[in-house]
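[Q] Does anyone have a clean structure-token version of this?
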Amino acid sequence: MADLESGLNKTDQVLNSPLVETGGIPQALKDLDRWIVWKHVHRDGKDTKVPIDPISGCGFDSTKPEAAKPFNVALDAYLTGKYAGMGFVLGEGVVGIDLDDCLTNSELKDDSWQQDLIYALGTYTEISPSGNGLKMIGISDLQHKGISKAKIELYSCSRFFNDTGMTNDGH
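[A] Here you go.
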């Protein structure tokens, strides 16, 4: 059972994560009060990201985007060194697309549908913390909670994306 104060289990092992390149995150996203911090832990045999409220330090409920904080509040909490990264809470018209295992050495693999999708949507795209995938954040009227098929996941609520700010395609 998770500790309500920290969002972590007693058996969780906190892991290191890459730095957040805040200069790569578009100002339009920074201007939205949708920011949290997170801890990267090893739980029950797999890695997971635990969302944390940047003010209280307690676990964050990603189904409540209205409780997220301004970018500068999350950044200040992240810079304390207590958290692995910053996250952006999806919902209320902001959606996220997760393209898993599509990069090798920060370059797209030969799957042309992924390149086509990135350019067709023309939205903010960044490299995931693993360095093996891409995350996209944009505006949509999508009403589904989430769709997960093969190497693509699409979410419109009840999720947060861990942001790296590392881009490689100019979007």
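[Q] Thanks! Anything notable?
[A] The first strand starts at residue 13 and ends at 14.
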